[in-house]
Here is the input.
Amino acid sequence: MKRTFCLNAALGLAALTAGPVLAQSDEAGSHQGDVTCIDVPEPVVSLSYGSRYTDESEDRSDIDQDANAAVNEALGPIDDFIVDLTARANEAASGGEEAGQAASCVVEALAVWAEADALSEMETMNANISSPSRIGALALAYIRAKQMGEIDRERAELIETWLSARAHHAMDYFDAEAPPKASRNNLRAWAGLAATAVGRTADDEVLTSWRAHTLALVACQADEDGALPLEMDRGPRALHYQLHAVGPLVVSAGLLEQDGYPAFGICDDAVPRIVDFTTRAVEAPELAEEKAGEPQTYQKGEDEVQAFELAWADAYLSFFEDAELARLVEPFRPLGNSKLGGDQSLLW
Here is the structure.
């Protein structure tokens, strides 16, 4: 039986017991009890960095360690903020006496970044194509907080206007300026998830339409086995990037299904085929090796599959019975990914 994603419905009992979200600026540091409000970092307004990969790497699989460190340093404060924000959003979603306070923490933290117009100056191509996954994560946390009760109207307008502007920028960039492969690969899928989350919270029909187009654009490239050709072009990291693509594709498809769009059935069940190939390839990386033409990092002991890379499974399993996938992810539970909304057991 299909379960409902919490972003699609109010949290019922939790909202009743916690009361309305308190969105006054002096609330951010005044919470008592088990909830710890977020130590909001300085808003990151501009991002400017290059690629993680060496200039000579034609398949974008050879990491330049210095460049990689520079990218991580630039994105670190944002990703740390997202982790903290998502943890508070999860506390809100779990209900209980502290749920309303946790929701207020999320709202107040986001208001700080919205007031600063954070992430509004993307100065390089790589900043533009990697920021949408962060925008989506921020929006998912906000929706969870918003469900807890009434938010101060000015606060809500401030945050939603900011998120909408960031998502529209990503949409325009991927349609007009992104490199040909990036405009159709896993990065586009993450931009689609951002459009999904922001489109819902801001009631933005343009973003809502674009998310469906983006899902089809990426998922319909899958071959008959479910491999995504642009990810298979990544040499020894092909399976890594297949995993990176399947998360936003599955979650976006699930949300679209709830909105009445037959997302899982498009292009001869493209998303289920992608899930099937990914599940089999995680257990047998030689399947990806055959597509990519060389052994995968997982085969060479350079990488291990992490729980966050499989967090999308809960969304998929809420729509389909898939014994093989359920067996694969069981040792990795609990499944969570801050860019997919955190603890997936609270979502699906």
Q: What stands out?
A: The chain has one domain: 6-346. The first helix runs from residue 13 to 18. Residues 1-35 have pLDDT under 50 and may be disordered.
